[in-house]
Amino acid sequence: MPSERAAASALLPCVLEQRLIDHHCHGVLREGGDLETLLTEGDGGAAAGGTAYDSLAGLAFRRMCPPVLGLPPHAPLAEYAARRSSLGAAEVSGRFLAAAGLGALCLDTGFQPRALLSPAEMGALAGAPAYEVVRLEQVGEDVGAVGVSAYAFADAFRTALEERAAAAGPRVVAVKSIAAYRVGLGLGAERPPDAEVAAAAGRWMRGGTGNGSGGSGAPPRLADETLHRFFIWCGADLGLPVQFHVGYGDRDIDLHRCNPLLLTGLLRALEPSGVPVMLLHNYPYHREAGYLAQVFPHVHADLGLATHNLGDRASGVLAEALELVPLRKFLYSSDAFGLPELYYLSASLFRRGLSDFLRARLDAGDWTEADAVRVTGLIGAENARRVYGLGA
To answer: Domains, the chain, ranges and CATH?
Structure first.
């Protein structure tokens, strides 16, 4: 399509050709997923009498995604949905994952409300190696569900986490905390002793904390500051990078409690371990995340799922995110979930944003072409490869 060829030609060659390592993402739904409810972090636009596609994300989707399915840009949604249905979920997923131009995927497997493609299946469709990110809270809830006593919880969790990290299958390259969703990021800095963990586990198992029942006799939803902090220290003990959800997400979070600056004390405490800390998503706190990545040697940042949700504003926000962060400490991620289109949309908008950022530096004479090529390689792949110890 002429407009798509023009868009590609507007990218710097080094950005267009760079295979991106998506250092935090999720699986694609086997049945293809619902376009309306999965486009953004909202619940779709139907309740307001509209559509989720009345957004910058929706407009970017309508421009960029139809050509991958053989339709013109801005094809009507009904026509797009019909084409998508006729091709089938497997074909649609394969096209978009291949078109994203990925060099590797690091998949968070801890959120599976419906059947998702496995890391191996995702890697095969993308034509890239796939790795696993273990969600700490999932391990904790699994341990609680088997009826372990509160006093045995700490040892049982450590054992279970070690087994997950060493399990056969996709290589585990990181752990992830979703404390932001459960208690916010105002976590204490100290490693909690086992006696405190036992007391917290007892409160949780008795239903004294959490937001809703786990059902079937399982403990309620895990939401205890001491336990989240304990999980993080256990992950650090394994020497694995620790990812934190930060900032933007669905309405299950209280956004004002998701500012990464709230992690400052914990970041200081973790620094001697040498374990990398990965601040995910960050918007609207992307500048704060950049500051933390600048002043703490073990802290890294990305823009994550904000990229495809910002649509054509992604370029401006990416430039803001890069204001302070050392360029060896910024990574690419999509946080794509469910819809294969989100992998492609995020990668496309990120490439456009990075190209715009670099071109402005080149046009001003501030950078050389060699600088632009080097920075593209760092952000697009080399930083992730170094932090997670991925193969070449």
So the answer is: 2-388 (3.20.20.140)
